[in-house]
Amino acid sequence: MENEHLNEMQKSVMGFSSWELLPYHIWENILSCLPILTLVRMKIVCKTWRSIINSQSFLAVYKKANHQDIYFVLFADFIHRNIAAAYNPMEDKWFAISLSHISSSSPSTSCKIRRTLVSDGSLVLAEDSKGSFFVSNLFTRTFQRLPPMLPLIWSYTIALVELDFSYKIVAVSVTDKVYSQVYDSITKTWEAKGEFDGRFAMLGNATHLDGFLYCLSYSPDNLLEFDLNCGTWSVVNVMMPSVVCSHILVHRGVLILVGGIEEFGVIKRIGIWELDRVERQWRPVCFMPDHLFYKFRLFSHGNLNQFFTVDRGGKLCFCKSTLPHINILMYDLSEKRWWWLPPCPLGSSLCKQSWFGHAVEPRMDIVQEEICDSCDKMSRKVG
């Protein structure tokens, strides 16, 4: 009789599932080890998992986990197939990322992507065909529309900064001086924040380090610093190398500069420098090896006039064209290794290609959730 009662208790416990007895923090630690695409699918299984994955405490744990996945979203077909082609350096493979959720979530108001502007972490800022801006996480298929910018002349975005549980967007207008405005995802408003005397031809890309944005100006060539909290601009006292197609990034807490050395209007070398803050000078790190540079400039009629750089996690992607069948080269700053990307499966068959040029990490959302239809299997290769 006692054995029968014991068996009944065991069956009851087995039916209840021992997983449900685990403490909340154990659940968080287990789930934080899973890939982002698995978590997205788990959110639709049950309310308990969805509640855990959406919680602020889980997001904090998840951000501390060592997730190595980085995707260089380099090319996209916004017209025919509505997909983006993303390269993963860890697997040395291209993957398809569907863009259909942006145009299908709210058919009455949404439009297809016209162009992407900036990215950081897991987020991409893009503009639709009606001129509206939105922030999207391409992996979890969520997005949030933004209110219009403040009315400044020729405003354009230079940075999206992903913080712990929020993000900020910095846009500038360069006329007689630099005017800037900042969007805060917490207040959901744009705020005029910071003016800077001086006329610049344009501002380059921006990178975030210790609460400051660093960006490059041209004519004159300067390194500019913007305090995200105070909204103040200043010029960093450092002489800039004479380079073209420059790109700035942060690697292991150090500012890195990429650029081409030009002779008579033609780029002859591509170099990488790091900023020595003590000596206030840019020190050479390395140059693209000659045999790689020779191959890189092919299809440029013997001369290289421009190229693009995309970076994430200390990996640099060099591309000289918006065409996906052109040679693409990558360099790992940590491993000091160069390699060619495999051919992009989008190929050259599509007549209209858009340069996407962003690198993202598939993290959990910090944008307002507007999950649409069913979760696609993002990890499939481009067919």
Structure description:
A four-stranded antiparallel sheet has the order 3-2-1-24, with no helix packed on it. It is globular and about 70 Å long. The longest helix is centred in the first third of the chain and has 15 residues, at 2-16. With 383 residues, the chain is an alpha+beta fold. Strand 20 (308-312) and strand 21 (315-319) form a beta hairpin. Residues 1-16, 105-110 and 369-383 have low confidence and may be disordered. It has helices at 2-16, 24-31, 36-42, 47-54, 56-64, 100-104, 290-296; strands at 71-77, 83-88, 93-98, 113-120, 123-128, 133-137, 142-145, 156-162, 167-174, 177-184, 189-197, 202-209, 212-218, 222-227, 233-235, 244-251, 254-263, 266-276, 281-287, 308-312, 315-319, 328-332, 337-340, 354-360. Helix 2 (24-31) packs across helix 5 (56-64). Helices cover 15% and strands 42% of the residues.
